[in-house]
Design brief:
CATH topology of chain A: Thiol Ester Dehydrase, Chain A
Number of strands of chain A: 6
Distance between the termini of chain A: 27 Å
CATH superfamily of chain A: Hotdog Thioesterase
Structural class of chain A: alpha+beta
Helix content of chain A: 10-25%
Oligomer: homotetramer
Shape of chain A: globular
Chain lengths: 140, 140, 140, 140
């Protein structure tokens, strides 16, 4: 088990309030012992000028999932995590429907995490794959 | 000169309509012969749960700038460009105000472009640095 | 099946001659229908000043595996592939023994490939994870 | 000034002994207050099977330069640095001569550094551009 305790989707979705997460229509939908899943709609909130899903929306979904998954591993009274860097390959253009992203841990260290985030379309075809590096920082 | 012709900010801003670009409050503000600049506000459209600028918003700004700058190099009747991959380092957390991103070319080839995007705060301190790889594709 | 034909390790290892691949002690050891594996020793050919495996050696192994795997998907009379970009997270320092890298496809398109390369130590613990983007180019 | 003291190229080149740095023919040639430069030959130590400079050699040069530059910012009795992750775009194939890499700081924080490394050919054309993220770790 990577997460500290069983994930409450209600509590995780409460984080969306007044943030970009809500503004893009991202909703946390499922979680396991060490993975977290969310969906994002393809509409005018997330499209680029050609009508395709904006690559930046995919990365926003990836960074959201990896950061929140990282947070779920920590004791919130003692530590926080921040994104150091992220990379993403866009492998399939998509115009409609929703995408589903899933974050899974590649490395959970004391001072850094590395998360992989896969984003798929409704036929489970890969749309984007991303890796996020987090720094774990003691609260002062 | 990398861009095909002097940039009309009005025409570039017209691309925002019904897209994530407009939804995040990104506005194109300045351009040169080979560089393009835009601003993005830090507010509930672009914040993460701690109240900081969401790293995904920085990457969305970077991907927007690099993709549109790439487009400005092409003959729109013959070619389009799509983002292959992007990376970004988040180097400074920021809570308020606006950020300004500037895209500059690192490589303009016939079939690929590489753009660097620097995002700075109002004191011109680096917030995020990103590199976007584009594929140039003939229109069918 | 992603590769064009069953892989001959003898033929693949013949590519090493007079290259960095041989110079670093990399040897191709195993292959499947769509994956390729190689080993690399940790010694003065691949160490950095502190005595650890050099991160650049890990990336050289990753780029070698992904590029050769890409090549094995192509008709060599009609196409070649070149590395556009690579990224890697170094997740575990290691001082001795050998590492084993395995390349697997994330995306095999007509004009680009994306390969994931995992590098592990002798206890199968993750040392480095990398993603390589290749351009497929018609031979002239 | 980012480096702790004026750089002794002799001392920096002494780090090469029994490492991959020496094995690839990398030599530190020049340094300023906050930048470090090295050369690498293109020969059978650094070529891939097509006779071009191996992308992994470029990344090994980049990681070498960024890591050593990072080290030059630290008090060696109190801290060390390790590479967390690296990315690189390969923008020009090259068959002969030497390449020159230069590392410059993008961010020097207490716990992380970000370095940019540009690698150029003998006509100062960009061959590869890379970004390295380092973690600064207290010595125990």
């Amino acid at each position: 088990m990577t997460f500290r305790e069983p994930v409450s989707l209600k509590a995780v979705n409460a984080l969306r309030q007044n943030t970009m997460i809500d503004h893009l229509g991202i909703v946390f939908t499922e979680a396991g012992d060490d993975w977290l899943r969310a969906t994002m709609p393809i509409d005018k909130r997330t499209r680029q000028p050609y009508g395709l899903l904006h690559g930046g929306a995919s990365v926003a979904l990836a960074e959201t999932l990896g950061s929140v998954a990282g947070l779920l591993c920590l004791d919130p009274e003692r530590e926080v995590c921040v994104g150091l860097d992220i990379n993403a390959n866009h492998v399939r253009g998509i115009r409609e429907g929703i995408v589903t992203g899933t974050a899974r841990p590649l490395h959970i260290g004391r001072s850094t995490h590395v998360w992989e985030i896969r984003i798929e379309d409704e036929e489970a075809r890969l749309v984007c794959i991303s890796r996020l590096t987090l720094a774990v920082i003691p609260r002062r």
